[in-house]
């Protein structure tokens, strides 16, 4: 079996994941909690308070899991490597995925940066093929631009060789 890719993401990506996950968990929590809270105010019933407590407990447990437990594991499992022929991406905690993207198949390379990534000085590199897009999140801006440009150049060279 082939060795895992050698390059890791910038360690600041763990904080980006934490912020993104906290936002989504809070939105889901509020979407579940608010209707029951309104129902409890309108017509108090014992079962509604039990549901409210269960939703609040589930929210706290989810926060601990997604903000404390998962980011370090996710960071260790996320790896990438670029060779002259292909881009190799490995990720996943439970369901591990490995993508080998030959540059002959690459149609487009791009960098992306949302507000949270920008706040941490990070970017994501996206490599598009006919089969879909593959993203390498959490690279320093300079490193992301170099990776994007190198992937585009290798894709151009691979197209010329055909």
CATH architecture of the largest domain: Roll
Indicate the radius of gyration in whole angstroms: 21 Å
The outline comes out as: elongated
**Largest sheet descriptor:** 4 strands, antiparallel
Instruction: Provide the low-confidence segments as ranges.
Output: none
Q: Give the ordered list of helices and strands.
A: EHHEEEEHEEH
**Distance separating the two termini:** 29 Å
Q: How many distinct helices?
A: 4
Q: Output the strand order for the largest sheet.
A: 1-2-3-4
CATH topology of the largest domain: PH-domain like
Helix share, percent: 40-55%
Number of strands: 7
Average pLDDT, rounded to a whole number, is 94
Which CATH C-level class of the largest domain is it?
A: Mainly Beta
Total number of distinct structural domains: 2
Protein name: YdbS-like PH domain-containing protein
InterPro entries: YdbS-like_PH (IPR005182)
Keywords: Membrane, Transmembrane, Transmembrane helix
Transmembrane segments: 21-41, 47-70
